[in-house]
What does this fold into?
Amino acid sequence: MSQAILVNLREAFLNAPGFWQTRFLIKTGNWCKLVEGLDKSRTDGYSILGGFVNQCDQLSTQKPGLYLFCEKKKQKQNATERLYTLFILEPDGSVEILHELRTASKDWGVQLWPQIDAYFIRQQHSGERRRQELLQEIQQLEFELKQRRAELAALSEN
It folds into this structure.
């Protein structure tokens, strides 16, 4: 995973391209967490693993990765609806919004599983792809180094 970066998460979020429903307000009842995995034995919000993030609205160190922000929205008849926003904090400090879900349902976590799974699959594949690229580059460099050593040995014999 990438090094932690110094960023104002709320500012970076608000600068993300697009028109999003959330205003990323840091107030009582709203929260943000760094998503680290899924526990599919659960069917609620506890199925989304990761630590809660502090200092979202000030300059602080954050890890690049997948984040989930929850904003409470009051509706008619005192019903509380929540707006869940999945977003990626990139290593350069920019933010990409993946998905927003407005719901009062208790199974909201399960509804976010497909997007979370897709994110981790992309990360795994890009890591494997980069590993393969590096191995090929190393093999090529080792071949070239072997050729240079042979050329140097031939020149030394003369």
Notes: Strands lie at 5-7, 31-34, 37-38, 48-49, 60-62, 65-74, 80-89, 95-103. The CA atoms of residues 18 and 149 lie 55 Å apart. Helices lie at 9-14, 108-157.
